[in-house]
Write a structure and sequence with these properties.
The protein has two domains: 2-246, Beta Polymerase, domain 2, CATH 3.30.460; 248-310, Methane Monooxygenase Hydroxylase, Chain G, domain 1. It is 59% helix and 13% strand. It is built from eight helices and seven strands; from the N terminus they run ββαβααββββααααα. The protein has helices at residues 15-22, 39-47, 52-59, 115-123, 130-161, 172-201, 209-275, 289-310; strands at residues 2-7, 11-12, 29-34, 66-70, 73-80, 93-100, 103-108. A seven-stranded mixed beta sheet has the order 2-1-3-7-6-5-4, sandwiched between helices. A hairpin with a 3-residue loop joins strand 1 (2-7) and strand 2 (11-12). The longest helix is centred in the last third of the chain and has 67 residues, at 209-275.
Amino acid sequence: MSGFAYAVQGGQVTQPEIKAALEVPGTLVWIHLTTNNDHAKSWLGDEAELSPYVVEALTAAETRPRCDAVGEGAVINLRGLSADQMVASDPLASIRMYAHQGCVFSVTRRHLNALDPVQRQVEAGRILDPGDLIAALAQEITEELDPVVAELGDTLDDCEERITGHHAFDLRRQVNETRSRAIGYRRFLNPQRAALEKLALLPGEWLRDDDRLHLSAAADRAARMAEELESIRERAALTHETLTDLRSEQIDQRSLIIAVAAMVFLPLTFLTGLFGMNVPLPFTHSPEAFWWITGSCVAMAAAITAYFIGKHWFPN
C-alpha cells in the first residue's frame, strides 16, 4: 500500500501525524491510498475508523461513477484518464472518495492523471476544503477528457472524408477502433454526469456555493462529452455500414464482369471445341477454314458484347 496525506495548514504529513491533523478544526486533511491489497481495507477500518459501508465502497474491485450521501458526508466515485495500460472495455481509471467536513479519503488502484495537478494545487494552498478538492478533481478529469473526445470526432471526420477514396476499405479498422473507444468512454461519462449533479445538490456545510457551481459546470461538460460520444458512436456505425455496402457493391461489380466475360467466351469455347475434334469435319482441307472460324468467333463475341452493352449489364 502506498499513498500520501496532506493537511492544508501543515503541508504533507506522515501516517503517525494523520490522527493529530484530523483533530485540528478548520484543517483540510486529504488522505490518498494507491493499493490493490487488503492492507488498505484494514487501515481504513481500524486506523481511520471508517464505517464498513464506506470501507467497502472505497476498496471495491469494480466501480462505476456514483454519489451516495453517508451521514454528514458522501461517497463519490469518478473516472478519468490514466497513463497505465487500460483495456478497451474499461478505458478510464477510477478514484473512490469519502468526503465530510474537513476530510477527504481517496483510493485508486491505477494512477489517475488528474491527481498530479490537484496535488500541486493543494501544495500551493489553492484548495482549502473538501468541496474545493472534489471540484478540482472533477474539473481536471473533464478538462483532460475533452480533447480526447474531440480527437475521436476529428478522426471520424477524416474517415468520412476518405470513404470515397481508393483505400476506403482500409478505414474499417480505424472506424471500429474509434467506435469502440467512444463506447468505452460513454459507458462511464453518463453516470459520472449524474454523480456530479447529485453531489452538487447534496445538503451539507462542507460544500460551499462556489463548489456546487464548479461541480455543476463539470457535470454539464461531462453531459456534453457524453452526447458527443453518442453522436460519434452512431456516425461510426453508419460509416461502417457504408463501407460494408461499398465492399458488397465492389464484389457485385467484379462478379458481374466475370459473368459477362464467361458469357462472351462460353459460345466461343463451344465453337473452337467443336472444330477441334479429331474427326473428319467439313472444310477440313480448305485453306480459308481457319479464317472463317476466326471471323465467326470475332463476330459472335462482338454481337454478344453489343447485346450486353445494350442491356446495360456492364458496370459503370
